[in-house]
Specification:
Low-confidence stretches: none
Number of helices: 11
Largest sheet: 9 strands, parallel
Distance between the termini: 19 Å
Mean pLDDT: 88
Structural class: alpha/beta
Order of helices and strands: EHHEHEHEHHEHEHHEHEHE
Shape: globular
Strand content: 5-15%
Helix content: 25-40%
Number of strands: 9
Amino acid sequence: MILVGLEAELGASKRGTDKGVRRLREALSATHGDVIKGMQTITQERCVLYKKFRYAKNFEDYYLFCKENLIPCMKEVFEKKEFPLILSSEHANMFGIFQAFRSVHKDKKIGILYLDAHADIHTAYDSDSKHIHGMPLGMVLNRVRSGFNRMSENEEKAWQKLCSLGLEKGALEIDPKCLVYFGVRSTEQSERDVIKELQIPLFSVDAIRENMQEVVQKTKESLKAVDIIYLSLDLDIMDGKLFTSTGVRENNGLSFDELKQLLGLLLESFKDRLKAVEVTEYNPTVSTKHNNEEEKQVLEILDLIINSCKFKDKKHSFIMSY
């Protein structure tokens, strides 16, 4: 069993998710003390390097953190062949974690289950906000080569170096049709164009609510050819009026009970191929509620994942990044 703490908010638009992870870790120590023992911590210090890249905020710091810290450390974790539950501060970290994941499983065809209000498939070519937390899947797939942000030749080279991190020894490309979206409801036109062009499966909140079993069955059909599965859960998949402890809230999302039901079905349906679960974007500092109700909900989600996955191996690991 291993617990790894990753401290990084370089891609976030709001601060506070590091505090959320620390609070969850403290709460989990009371209910899952075996998971907390032997914790390892990986820290990221913001260098504020020379800002020569115009279309992704904190690009230089993010590049170095992924290259020198996040990806190498996550490779070591994944090489242990123990099941990881990743509690990450914000979704920009998904890129570095996943690059390590695919490099360790370089001969495996990987499917991605992505539960989120946002598509996160922007790139430096087409992002208005320039926040990297909206780009992890854009970097993982690396299919976009143009957009309204006119990068210089040096910027394009730097962008490609970032998207290639962790893959120096090779890895299979990620088939966009083996990325499945759940609950995505806030996208921009460039993202919608890419989703349509690459034929990425997307199940809306309405579709999930109407027939959850059918959605999961169709997902199994889409991913029948993949060898292993990576599941990424952004808590903003829940309705922003009901769950407020996350940085970029969107209305008309799933309820807490609906999320638990969907997650439970996915964990059960893919239990034989599921090799990593990531939970991200819990930020208690932006909550509009003055009690622990939302934190208890997150802990219930973590408890569901731990109880569903802890018997996958004789040993298992719990990885936290914040």
